[in-house]
C-alpha cells in the first residue's frame, strides 16, 4: 500500500468497488456524473419545498455513511440511529445552550458520534454478519433508553424543542429554509467527499479486502478488527454530521432520531439505492424522502405499509438496488461486461 | 425476603415471554440460518389474534392458547414458502432485511386497522387475584404464566431430545452440512420448523395478552430485547435462549424494583459484558461465532 500514485490522482480513479484501471471514457462519465450531481444538489430547493430538500440532503449523507460501512466493509449496522440521533441531540443542545453557529454544532455532534462509536465499534466488531447487526441494534437501543430517561437534558418524550439556528448573524440563513439549505450544503458535500476519499484511498482498498476475504487480509498482515473499528467510527462521524444538520434544520430533536426505526430507514435507503455504490444512498434518499413526504401530505396513514413493501420487493427482486441495476444495464448496452468484481462484491450475492 | 421472592416470580413471568419467543427465534435460526426480525411482530399478532377472536367469536383464553399458535403456525408456513425460502440460499442478512420490511408492514397494517390504542382483553377469572402460599402472596396470573411456559419449554426440550424429529432438528442446527451428508433431508423440515418458531412467538403473545397492553407497537421494543436475549444466550443455542430469556426477565424485574430509571439499560450492559467475556454467548460455541 505504499504506491499511492494510482489511487491519489482523481484522473485515474478506480472503479468504486475496486475494479481494474479505469478506461478513459468511464472516467469522463464519472466526471459528468459528478457535475450532474452537483447541479442537482444546487437546484434542488428550487424544484421542491426547501425543508424537504434539506431532509433529502441530510438523509443522503446518512445513507452514504452507512454504505461506506455496509458496501465497502461488509458490515451491516442496524444501530446507526445512535450516531445520527446522538449527534442530533448534541448539536441541538450546543446550539440551544451555548449558541454555537450551526456548522460548529453539527461538527460537535459528529465528534460526539465518533466518541460514542469507538466503544460500540470495539465491542461490535468482535462479531460479524448477522451478529454485528443485532449487537449494534442493541447498543443503539441502549442509547435510546438513556435519552428517554434523561429528561432533564433531553426532554424525554417531548424531545428537545426550540433549537435555534445561529449563523454569524446572517438573518436570511437563520430564518429562511431556502438559504439555510445553501449554508448547510457545503457540510453535506464535505461529508460525501470524505466518504469518496476513504473509498478511493489505500485504506479503502484494504477495507474491501477485509470484506471479501478477511482471512487472507489477516494473513497479509492487516489488522482486520482495527480497520473495521476505524471505518465504523468514520461512518458514525459522517452519520453524525448528517444528523446534526438535520436536527438544526428542523429546530427540534425528537426521540424518533435515536429509535431503531431510524436505523432501519437508513438501511432501507441504502439497499434501495444500491449497496457499495455511494451514489445509491443519494438515490435512495431522494426516492424515500419524497415518497414519505407525499404520503404524509396526502394524509395516508401507515407509511410502513408502503416502505415495508418496497423493502420486501427490493430484497426479493432488485438486490443490486436502483443504482446498481441501472448502471449494470448501461454497461451492458455499451457492450461492456458489468464490472464483475464490483458486482459480486458490492452486490453481495454471496456475502454482503 | 418476601419482596425478593415476589420480584423473582414477577421477573420469571416476564422472562417467560422472552424465553418462549427466543426459543422460536433460536430454532428458526438453527435450522434456516435466518434471524427473524418479524418475531416481535408475530408476538404482537399472537396477542391481537387472541383479543380479536375473543371479541368476534368469544374465543376464551384457554382455547386461544391452542387456536392462536396453530393459526400462527400456518402463517409462518405461508411466510416461509412465499418469501423466506427465496432467500435462504443467499447471505442471511438478506432475510434479516426481508423480515425487517415484513415487520414494518405488519405493524402498520394492524395500526391502520385497529388504531394505536390498546385492545381490551379480559383475563379469565380464575387467574385473577392472588395465590397465598403460607405467608406468601403471589399474583396468580404470574405463577400461571411461569408454570405454563416452563411446561412448554420442557415439552419442546423433550421433543428435541427424545424424538427423531428433534434429533434431526438438533443435528441440522449444530452441523447442517454433516447432517445432509448423512443422507437426512434437512429441507423437508425447514418449513414446519419455521412455522413452529412463529407459533412459539404467537403463543408468547397470547400469554402476554391479559398481562400487557395490546397495541400494534408491543412487539417493537420486544424484538430488540429478544435480540439481546439471544446474543446473551448464544444464537444457535436452544438452552441458551431459554435460560437467557428468564435471566433477562429477572434483570428487568429487579432493575424496575431497585433502579427504575436504569432497568432497561442494565439488560444491554449485561449483553456488552457477555460479548466482552464470551463473544459466542453463554451457551454458544465459538465456532458458530
TrEMBL record, chain A:
It comes from the Bacteria. Pfam families: BPD_transp_2 (PF02653). It is a multi-pass membrane protein. Keywords: Cell membrane, Membrane, Transmembrane, Transmembrane helix. GO terms for cellular component: plasma membrane. It is found in: Cell membrane. This is Branched-chain amino acid ABC transporter permease. It comes from Ornithinimicrobium tianjinense. The lineage of its organism: Bacteria, Bacillati, Actinomycetota, Actinomycetes, Micrococcales.
UniProtKB/TrEMBL annotation, chain B:
GO terms for cellular component: plasma membrane. GO terms for biological process: amino acid transport. Its main location: membrane. The chain crosses the membrane at residues 12-31, 61-80, 92-110, 141-160, 189-211, 223-251, 257-277. Belongs to the binding-protein-dependent transport system permease family. LivHM subfamily. It is a multi-pass membrane protein. GO terms for molecular function: transmembrane transporter activity. This is Branched-chain amino acid ABC transporter permease. It is found in: Cell membrane. Keywords: Amino-acid transport, Cell membrane, Membrane, Transmembrane, Transmembrane helix, Transport. It comes from Ornithinimicrobium tianjinense.
Amino acid at each position: 500500500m505504499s504506491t499511492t500514485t494510482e489511487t491519489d490522482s482523481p484522473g485515474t480513479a478506480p472503479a468504486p468497488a475496486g475494479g481494474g484501471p479505469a478506461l478513459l471514457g468511464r472516467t469522463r462519465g464519472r466526471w459528468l456524473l459528478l457535475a450532474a450531481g452537483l447541479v442537482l444538489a444546487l437546484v434542488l430547493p428550487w424544484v421542491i419545498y426547501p425543508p424537504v430538500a434539506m431532509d433529502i440532503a441530510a438523509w443522503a449523507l446518512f445513507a452514504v455513511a452507512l454504505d461506506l460501512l455496509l458496501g465497502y466493509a461488509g458490515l451491516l449496522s442496524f444501530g446507526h440511529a445512535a450516531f445520527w440521533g446522538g449527534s442530533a441531540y448534541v448539536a441541538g443542545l450546543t446550539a440551544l445552550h451555548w449558541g454555537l453557529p450551526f456548522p460548529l454544532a453539527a461538527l460537535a455532534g459528529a465528534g460526539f458520534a465518533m466518541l460514542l462509536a469507538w466503544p460500540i465499534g470495539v465491542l461490535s466488531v468482535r462479531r460479524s454478519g448477522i451478529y454485528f447487526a443485532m449487537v449494534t441494534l442493541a447498543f443503539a437501543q441502549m442509547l435510546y433508553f438513556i435519552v428517554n430517561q434523561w429528561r432533564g437534558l433531553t426532554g424525554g418524550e417531548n424531545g428537545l424543542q426550540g433549537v435555534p439556528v445561529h449563523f454569524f448573524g446572517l438573518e436570511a440563513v437563520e430564518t429562511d429554509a431556502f438559504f439555510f439549505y445553501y449554508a448547510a450544503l457545503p457540510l453535506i458535500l464535505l461529508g460525501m467527499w470524505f466518504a469518496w476519499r476513504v473509498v478511493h484511498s489505500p485504506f479503502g482498498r484494504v477495507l474491501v479486502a477485509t470484506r471479501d476475504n478477511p482471512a487472507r487480509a489477516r494473513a497479509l498482515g492487516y489488522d482486520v478488527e482495527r480497520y473495521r473499528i476505524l471505518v465504523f467510527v468514520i461512518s458514525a462521524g459522517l452519520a453524525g454530521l448528517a444528523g446534526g444538520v438535520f436536527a438544526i434544520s428542523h429546530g427540534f430533536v425528537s426521540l424518533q432520531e435515536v429509535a431503531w426505526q431510524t436505523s432501519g430507514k437508513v438501511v432501507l435507503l441504502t439497499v434501495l439505492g444500491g449497496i457499495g455504490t455511494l451514489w445509491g444512498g443519494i438515490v435512495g434518499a431522494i426516492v424515500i424522502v419524497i415518497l414519505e413526504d407525499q404520503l404524509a401530505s396526502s394524509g395516508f396513514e401507515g407509511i410502513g405499509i408502503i416502505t415495508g413493501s418496497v423493502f420486501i420487493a427490493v430484497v426479493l427482486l432488485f438486490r443490486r438496488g436502483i443504482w446498481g441495476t441501472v448502471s449494470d444495464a448501461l454497461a451492458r448496452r455499451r457492450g461492456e461486461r458489468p464490472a464483475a468484481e464490483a458486482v459480486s462484491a458490492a452486490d453481495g450475492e454471496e456475502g454482503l | 425476603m418476601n419482596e425478593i421472592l415476589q420480584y423473582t416470580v414477577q421477573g420469571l413471568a416476564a422472562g417467560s415471554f422472552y424465553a418462549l419467543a427466543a426459543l422460536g427465534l433460536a430454532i428458526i435460526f438453527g435450522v434456516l440460518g435466518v434471524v427473524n426480525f418479524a418475531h416481535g411482530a408475530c408476538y404482537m399478532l399472537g396477542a391481537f389474534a387472541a383479543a380479536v377472536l375473543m371479541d368476534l367469536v368469544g374465543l376464551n383464553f384457554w382455547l386461544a392458547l391452542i387456536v392462536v399458535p396453530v393459526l400462527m403456525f400456518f402463517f409462518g408456513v405461508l411466510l416461509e414458502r412465499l418469501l423466506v425460502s427465496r432467500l435462504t440460499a443467499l447471505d442471511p442478512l438478506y432475510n434479516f432485511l426481508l423480515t425487517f420490511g415484513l415487520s414494518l408492514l405488519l405493524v402498520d397494517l394492524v395500526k391502520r386497522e385497529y388504531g394505536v390504542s390498546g385492545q381490551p382483553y379480559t383475563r379469565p377469572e380464575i387467574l385473577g387475584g392472588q395465590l397465598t402460599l403460607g405467608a406468601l402472596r403471589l399474583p396468580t396470573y404470574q405463577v400461571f404464566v411461569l408454570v405454563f411456559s416452563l411446561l412448554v419449554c420442557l415439552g419442546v426440550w423433550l421433543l428435541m431430545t427424545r424424538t427423531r424429529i428433534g434429533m434431526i432438528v438438533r443435528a441440522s442446527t449444530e452441523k447442517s452440512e454433516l447432517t445432509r451428508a448423512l443422507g437426512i433431508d434437512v429441507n423437508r423440515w425447514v418449513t414446519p420448523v419455521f412455522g413452529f418458531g412463529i407459533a412459539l412467538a404467537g403463543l408468547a403473545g397470547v400469554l402476554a395478552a391479559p398481562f400487557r397492553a395490546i397495541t400494534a407497537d408491543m412487539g417493537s421494543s420486544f424484538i430488540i430485547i429478544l435480540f439481546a436475549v439471544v446474543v446473551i444466550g448464544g444464537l444457535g443455542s436452544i438452552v441458551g435462549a431459554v435460560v437467557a430469556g428468564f435471566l433477562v426477565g429477572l434483570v428487568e424485574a429487579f432493575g424496575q424494583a431497585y433502579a427504575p430509571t436504569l432497568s432497561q439499560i442494565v439488560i444491554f450492559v449485561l449483553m456488552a459484558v457477555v460479548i466482552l467475556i464470551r463473544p459466542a454467548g453463554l451457551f454458544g460455541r465459538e465456532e458458530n461465532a
